[in-house]
């Protein structure tokens, strides 16, 4: 497809307009949805640009191009979910490869890595990546893949992606960064030295809580081709309609992110000032331990945060019975605000021991701040916090 966006347009323009009016049939302004699973050959042994939908689909490819440009990669592979994106990298490793992952990563990621390790397909080491010296000692074991998640889910710990990538790559490892929490609007891990970016595009990239899709973006062109080939081999490819919805959501990524972050900052300040709240984890707050690093490494602080209620589970229960504007649900990154209780929801499968090692207590709540009016968000949160006080 022809590219209406010149090579060096700003990322906002890529998000809003990549592929606009490039439809070869009718020059449709909104990108068409190609559902066909198969394509006519021109003749004997003459496939055209597309032959079969597992290998390539115009709608999926347009979304992939836009995401790859936003992440400054050579290409993106779209998978049926964020988990499938991570497994695309992990499943391709030779048997027995060592994977280094953060000890406090997303619960689903940990479940996947542990399941692969239990089946002896990989070796797995879970490490605290905020300690660079400790991290270096783990590199002596020659990992094939280092997985980084920054900011981490749900505690919003930020690690130094450039420093970790330099050391990991010097030891021969490839580095993948899960950029789900910030999106390329606020962080570009490839420009910090990573080899791959991972996304649950289910979250901010789509932004409307109506689709499950994932992405792997590669810095290196040969790696991109190898991953695209592997997705075709294993069949882990995103559906055309899901891709189309995600492209539609991506159009507004930058404005959503900007406003959601603005709302998040106001919410973090409200929480910080409230007597029932023991701690707020939001890197945008100046007293967050990783504030300086986040300010240097990121273009913004994003719309995710977590906080601890001093009263533990009973306080959580009272809060959740009375809170308004924040819906109790898993997932994040949509236009609507959500609240989740990691210990019983997103991080349940991690088990109590790993949770306590990662610092995920029973009084911890995670917020995804949406696009509602800030007065309504404040009032809704206040309703929950007041119930805790009683
Ligand atoms: C949700 C999430 C995933 C998994 O993505 P799915 O699309 O739900 O499969 C991976 N990493 C992070 C940080 C997430 O928040």
UniProtKB/TrEMBL annotation:
Cross-referenced InterPro entries: Cys/Met-Metab_PyrdxlP-dep_enz (IPR000277), Cys_met_metab_PP (IPR054542), O_succ_thio_ly (IPR011821), PyrdxlP-dep_Trfase (IPR015424), PyrdxlP-dep_Trfase_major (IPR015421), PyrdxlP-dep_Trfase_small (IPR015422)
Domain of life: Bacteria
EC supergroup of this enzyme: transferase
GO MF terms, alphabetically ordered: cystathionine gamma-lyase activity; cystathionine gamma-synthase activity; pyridoxal phosphate binding
SUPFAM superfamilies: PLP-dependent transferases
Entry GO CC: cytoplasm
GO biological process, one term: methionine biosynthetic process
Cofactors: pyridoxal 5'-phosphate
Annotated keywords: Pyridoxal phosphate, Transferase
Modified residues (N6-(pyridoxal phosphate)lysine): 203
E.C. number: 2.5.1.48
Protein family: Belongs to the trans-sulfuration enzymes family.
NCBIfam families in alphabetical order: O_succ_thio_ly
Name the UniProt record assigns to this protein: Cystathionine gamma-synthase
The organism of origin for this protein: Ciceribacter ferrooxidans
Gene: metB
């Amino acid at each position: 497809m022809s590219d209406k966006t010149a090579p060096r347009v700003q990322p906002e323009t890529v998000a809003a307009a990549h592929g606009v009016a490039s439809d070869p049939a009718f020059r449709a302004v909104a990108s068409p949805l190609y559902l066909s699973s198969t394509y006519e050959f021109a003749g004997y042994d003459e496939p055209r640009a597309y032959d079969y939908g597992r290998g390539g689909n115009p709608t999926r490819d347009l979304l992939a191009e836009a995401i790859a440009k936003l992440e400054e990669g050579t290409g993106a592979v779209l998978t049926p979910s964020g988990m499938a994106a991570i497994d695309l990298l992990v499943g391709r490793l030779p048997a027995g490869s060592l994977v280094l992952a953060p000890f406090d990563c997303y619960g689903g990621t940990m479940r996947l890595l542990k399941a692969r390790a239990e089946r002896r397909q990989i070796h797995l080491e879970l490490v605290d990546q905020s300690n660079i010296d400790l991290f270096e000692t783990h590199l002596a074991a020659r990992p094939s893949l280092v997985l980084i998640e920054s900011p981490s889910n749900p505690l919003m710990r930020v690690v130094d992606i450039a420093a970790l990538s330099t050391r990991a790559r010097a030891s021969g490892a490839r580095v993948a960064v899960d950029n789900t929490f910030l999106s390329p609007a606020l962080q570009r891990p490839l420009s910090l030295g990573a080899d791959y970016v991972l996304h649950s595009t289910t979250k901010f990239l789509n932004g409307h809580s109506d689709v499950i899709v994932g992405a792997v973006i590669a810095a290196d062109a040969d790696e991109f081709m190898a991953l695209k080939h592997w997705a075709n081999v294993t069949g882990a490819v995103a559906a055309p309609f899901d891709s189309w919805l995600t492209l539609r959501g991506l159009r507004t990524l930058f404005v959503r992110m900007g406003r959601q972050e603005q709302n998040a900052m106001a919410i973090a300040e409200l929480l910080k000032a409230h007597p029932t709240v023991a701690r707020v984890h939001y890197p945008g707050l100046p007293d967050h331990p990783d504030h300086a690093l986040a300010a240097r490494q990121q273009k913004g602080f994003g719309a995710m945060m977590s906080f601890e209620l001093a009263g533990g589970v009973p306080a959580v229960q009272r809060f959740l019975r009375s809170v308004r504007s924040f819906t109790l649900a898993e997932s994040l990154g949509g236009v609507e605000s959500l609240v989740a209780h990691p210990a019983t929801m997103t991080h349940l499968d991690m088990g109590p021991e790993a949770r306590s090692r990662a610092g995920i207590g029973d009084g911890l709540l995670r917020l995804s701040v949406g696009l509602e009016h800030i007065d309504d968000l404040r009032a809704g949160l206040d309703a929950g916090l007041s119930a805790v006080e009683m």
